[in-house]
Design brief:
heterodimer; A: 6-stranded parallel β-sheet; 4-stranded mixed β-sheet; 24 helices; 12 strands; globular; disordered N terminus; B: 6-stranded parallel β-sheet; 5 helices
Chain lengths: 522, 217
């Protein structure tokens, strides 16, 4: 048994809780070089730099390859047995598109229904405002500890860290979130935040950071899950305040929905006295019947199950059953920015299933941390830069739309048919336009200008072709050019350049058609 | 300006910026199956439900009549020392329990605390609807299903479903549930589970680790 280091640490650096009993001195991440970000939507370096570093981590690649191939197979099997899958996707996409264009009315309708049932709705323009609202609500209860259901949006706003600064300890209760929190790490996947960890790493994290791990605990997933159950049980039974996200909010009835597997969600949504839900404004669906579409699309796309083990629905307060003090914080935080782009807004229709991550050849190799945002993978590459906006060329988020081969696998699996490759191209074009507006020469623009100068004249083109022989020397035996001096480096820092062929087409024609070559030229 | 006014204003401005978005409104076409192929309560629909529940590692029992539930519960809960039930549960179902089993009734007016529920071994409830296609049982807090906490904290949940409550598809189930959307609902598809470690599924985490489904009729 290793030294007890205590309950989950809060990932704040330097600003520690005075009130929470479970808060301990800070410590370094376990076996991780992921820094704790100040900005959960923008941390680290550019994608190419982060990807290069991640590609050097063979353990990470092995963990990811195993996990993503497992989930891909499961998803394919359960999607394949649904005869009307395409019709469900069409309906899901259409409902979400309808939501986007009718958002003001639907939000007002939801607010009215939820409030009529005893719930309280709060509105937050940005992360800081949402965190302030939640912290004040928790403080009003007099509690210094809260339990949390896994929630992407609370990751997005850095809620745990903000609460820590207010002396409130937030305990993640989803197994993967618990692993991430114990390791002082960052999530690397929307659904399985600890997908970058294998069982033996998780065992190490538990032994080092979790209270009362069982004697002789092996790295069998069952034993690790049971250790987590024991660890969290007392927390659940005594918690007075819970914080959740929401998968869907039904406008006509004021109903909130949380989709989960472990029962930690039910524990948080049922046992405490106060429930605070944080949700992006885009999560609305118009009618209760719309759940029949999304509750078929989401579980099969995300965990590859016909249905997830538990789904909870609540409509304001139910007297005598569950929390009697129920709040919802509706969050903008860049969503209206994305909404104002009539192409880009499709990213807001995402239901966070993570199928696009699991099929992405780029994600599978570099993992989630390389994207520098709590929203990684293909959806993250289109969502993150739209939520934050770009501060210009040096902004790491401006590289995200390029974090793709445009192979299209993400679009194929998306349950709400977000055309991610088209959005990536759209965002790339937008960044080129923005650069042009700033009168900044782009690599692409410079290359095209040079090419058009050379190709406009046969003599210049022939001269340029002679230079290609040099490329073969640079490429050497591998046949690939991996690093060129500027401005060629703008290309080769992200991808190799194949060596030019031994012979150009024009030389080959001259050699094989000696009789016609003169005539062709004249 | 308060946050509500400002956010709604931002949303409206974002939408106005889109050329002719009103005209571009696409109707929601529902070409998916609203009704499954198998009739509600049919033996074929029940077979599908059983197949799905087996897959989730739930324990499935089939009995002919409500009377036979009594003996079956006696068998399932033979080793159980304490059971909690909702107020509206069919009383004779519990007649087969041994004298060593304490039965407590949880009501909205006299609810058991989470710590009290943690001392109880098992819970017996009815259900609102079952969806065969996905192996899903839904509780909506009706008097024979009880408060959400009672089906959450005890480690064994025995859920009794009438055959006529079994529908084939998710849309059929949602149609039934839409009659009372205000009720707190819990959709249960097998015992609690996690796939968070290397995507390998482990049944039984925080919710009841053992789920028995009794199909009557």
């Amino acid at each position: 048994m290793s030294t007890f280091l205590g309950l989950p640490s809060l990932r704040s650096r330097g600003a520690h809780s005075s009130g929470g009993t479970g808060v301990l001195p800070e410590h370094a991440p376990v076996g991780s070089d992921v820094p704790h970000p100040d900005a959960p939507l923008r941390w680290g370096t550019t994608f190419p730099d982060a990807a290069r570093a991640a590609l050097g981590n063979t353990q990470l690649r092995r963990n990811l390859a195993h996990a993503t191939s497992t989930i891909r197979d499961k998803r394919a099997a359960v999607v394949g047995e649904v005869p009307d899958w395409e019709e469900l996707r069409d309906a899901g996409a259409a409902i979400k598109a309808h939501v986007m264009t009718n958002l003001p009315d639907l939000l007002a309708q939801f607010e009215e229904a939820f409030t009529a049932r005893g719930g309280t709705v709060h509105w937050a323009r940005d992360a800081a405002e949402a965190n302030r609202i939640v912290a004040d609500l928790v403080k009003a209860t007099g509690e210094t500890e809260v339990v949390k259901v896994k929630s992407m949006v609370t990751q997005e706003i850095g809620l745990n860290e903000a609460l820590a600064e207010e002396g409130i300890a937030a305990f993640e209760t989803d197994l993967a979130e618990l692993i991430v929190q114990l390791a002082d790490d960052m999530p690397s996947h929307i659904l399985v935040p600890a997908i970058h960890r294998n069982r033996s790493e998780i065992r190490e994290i538990f032994l080092e950071r979790m209270e009362h791990t069982p004697e002789g605990m092996t790295d069998a997933p069952r034993e690790l899950a049971m250790a987590a159950r024991a660890h969290l049980r007392r927390k659940f039974l005594s918690a007075k305040v819970a914080i959740s996200g929401a998968n869907f909010a039904v406008a006509e009835t004021g109903t909130l929905t949380v989709v989960e597997s472990e029962g930690n969600g039910r524990m948080c949504l049922t046992l405490p006295e106060t429930l605070i839900t944080v949700m992006g404004i885009e999560k609305i669906v118009p009618t209760f019947a719309d759940l029949e579409v999304f509750m078929q699309l989401l579980p099969r796309s995300s965990t590859g199950e016909r249905m997830n083990p538990y789904t909870s629905l609540w409509t304001g307060v139910t007297p005598g059953d569950g929390p009697q003090d129920v709040h919802l914080v509706l969050l903008d935080n860049g969503r209206t920015r994305a909404l104002s782009d009539d192409v880009g807004r499709a990213a807001l229709t995402c239901i966070r299933c993570s199928a696009c991550l699991n099929v992405c050849p780029v994600y599978e190799r570099v993992g989630g941390h390389a994207y520098g945002s709590v929203y990684p993978g293909p959806i993250g590459a289109i969502l993150t830069p739209q939520l934050t906006g770009s501060t210009g060329h040096s902004d790491p988020n401006s590289t995200l739309p390029y974090a793709s081969t445009l192979c299209g696998a993400c679009y194929e699996v998306c349950p709400v048919k977000i055309d991610i490759p088209a959005l990536l191209v759209h965002l790339r074009a937008k960044s080129v336009e923005e650069d042009r507006a700033r009168n900044r020469p782009t690599a692409w623009g410079a290359a095209m200008k040079a090419a058009s100068f050379v190709m406009a004249d046969a003599g210049r083109f022939a001269t340029a072709e002679k230079g290609l022989a040099l490329g073969r020397i640079v490429a050497g035996r591998s046949g690939r050019i991996s690093s060129l001096p500027f401005p060629g480096s703008l290309w080769t820092e992200a991808r190799d350049l194949p060596a030019p062929p031994k012979e150009t087409f024009r030389r080959w024609w001259e050699r094989t058609h000696p009789d016609t070559s003169d005539g062709e030229r004249s | 300006m308060n946050a509500r006014t400002e956010i709604l204003g931002r949303v409206r401005r974002a939408l106005e910026g889109v050329r002719g978005h009103q005209a571009a409104e696409v109707p929601v076409v529902r070409d998916y199956r609203l009704v499954g192929d198998l009739a509600p309560g049919s033996s074929e629909a029940i077979d599908v439900l059983v197949d799905r529940l087996d897959d989730y590692k739930a324990h499935v029992h089939r009995v002919e009549t409500s009377e036979t539930v009594t003996a079956l519960l006696g068998e399932i809960l033979a080793e159980t020392t304490s059971v909690v039930v909702p107020p509206g549960l069919e009383p004779h179902w519990l007649d087969g329990l041994t004298s060593g089993t304490t039965v407590r009734t949880d009501t909205v007016d006299a609810p058991l605390s989470a710590l009290e529920l943690d001392e109880i071994d098992a819970v017996v409830t009815a259900a609102r609807v079952a969806v065969a296609d996905t192996g899903t049982i839904v509780l909506d807090g009706s008097p024979d299903q009880g408060r959400r906490a009672i089906t959450l904290v005890p480690d064994v949940h025995v859920c009794i479903v009438r055959a006529d409550q079994v529908v084939h598809s998710v849309p059929e189930g949602v149609t039934i549930l839409a009659a009372h959307p205000e009720r707190p609902q819990t959709w249960i598809s097998g015992p609690s589970a996690t796939s968070d470690i290397e995507l390998s599924r482990v049944e039984g985490v925080h919710g009841p680790r053992t789920l028995h489904v009794v199909i009557v009729g």
